[in-house]
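Hey, I'm writing a tutorial for new members on how sequence and structure tokens pair up, and I'd like a real worked example in the thread rather than a made-up one. If someone can provide the structure for the chain below, I'll link this post from the tutorial.
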Amino acid sequence: MPSVILLLLTFLLCVPIFGYEPAPENVKAREWFQDAKFGLFVHWGTYSVLADGEWVMHQRKMSTAEYERLPGLFNPRNFDAKQWVSFAKNAGMKYITITSKHHDGFAMWGTKQNNWNIVDATPYGKDVLALLAEECRRQGIKLFFYHSQLDWHHADYFPRGRTGQHSLRPDKGDFDRYLDFMDSQLRELLTGYGPIGGIWFDGMWDKKDAEWRQQQTYDMIHKLQPAAMIGSNHHVTPYLGEDFQMFERDLPGQNSMGFNQAGVSELPLEMADTMNNSWGYNAGDSKHKSVKQLLQTLVRAAGANANFLLNVGPRPDGTIQPEHVESLNEMGEWMAQNGKSIYGTRGGPVPPRHWGVTTHKGSTVYLHALEPQDGLIVLPDFGKEVTSAKLLQDNRTVRYEKQGFGTVVFIPDSIQDPVDTIIVLDTR
């Protein structure tokens, strides 16, 4: 009998009690995600009425009663789902991630869990997520839902976290009841809007030590939609059950923002960034990034084996700022010409350098010279022999030399592109 018990204990120790094996549909979705490379992020909600970003409730120390006046002023009569999806598609984007609920707790769909939503609380009275989901299906764009776990409005989000301390809600609540509420809302999103790309969580950092029951939530999501990918902007090593890892305003492995301290996992990767310095609509933010800067960030993300999720913050009338639309159009023109060096590729084989990055697909390596110096690029030995080098733009032959340490590719001023000089290297 002791030997049987010993064998049983050994078995239990060797087999994890809780595990996550992604479904075949999920594995396929991950591959699609890595091929897609470029998506549109949309931060939109009742906060757009104040034109001061999505954190306005917290930053202005507004009480719940004060903030509850905003939905009565939110009437996006000019919202056009077809136009939005077309903007994304024309920009070369393959998916859209939109805020279903941000930290203010306001739902951008007709949730049945409370009246704090766009259908019941605004003059507009329409479910924008339903309209967007239908149009995404029509135009072949995948739809992801951003969902805040943090909630400055719900009474049961208690004890309070690091933010939303001025809402003047009662100092009591049942956090488990709040998590039940959150799961019920997620169930609506996963059962009422057709197949979705996934859930983009945010807000767990507000209460790092809380019991978020994420495994229970993740299991529900994967059961309802096995192909749906789960990611969380918690800034730590991905948890069991997550399907991709995101980095906020940083390339994977960098930490210029100070909170992207997690290492780079083996999961599909994504970098999210803004058009200016704001996520939600901010009328006072005119620091718009140039198209060159945005494109080079996209290219550097691809070289780091990550997608680029580029944000817009629509105005309260439902329109997107013209300068952002113009930038998207210009990026689309560039992607139409150069997208083959981005779509379907993986980062490397040469790690990112100060001069730029490489991407590859099969035996083809794309050298992205973003900042060539002295008219040449020195590539270390990456395990394959370069057999030809040509400009992607016009197929012109590019000079290269094999050296003992690798390959030198010559990029004279006459062939340099102001955004990205892309050289196609055939290898064997």
